[in-house]
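B., you asked whether I could sanity-check this one before it goes into the benchmark set. Here's the sequence:
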Amino acid sequence: MSTRTDSAASQGGPDPPAPAVGLPPPAERGATVIRDRAVAHIAAQAARTAQTRRAALPPDPNGSAAPSASAAVRTGSVRVHLDLDLPYPTDLPLVCERIQHDVAERVAELTGLRVGEVTLTVRRLVTTAGASRGRVR
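And here's what the prediction gave me:
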């Protein structure tokens, strides 16, 4: 990026862009609206990534179902609710906390909205292939 000094102006440098004629100031032109459904889709994708990363639950068409999400956007803030499967055995409170954090961070990053709350519902616990050790006697 180049800046223009008074000496550059006297040497015939490029003129700065003219202000837009007839347009209201940027603050009065309107607002970008992000719908609940779009935020929910972003949250579901973020939850799937976090589920794979934090809970070591790989995408498996025969095992766990993809996370589902709903969102409520109100005045620049969003509340997200997720339904997902988690592996068994796992440290549920720790994994849930990390997934909530990851989803909140990603939704805020992609939408610019403040995430007020991320709630989780664990639909079911999925046993992983390495967890089936048989019965202990």
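One thing to flag: The chain has three helices and three strands. Otherwise nothing jumped out at me.
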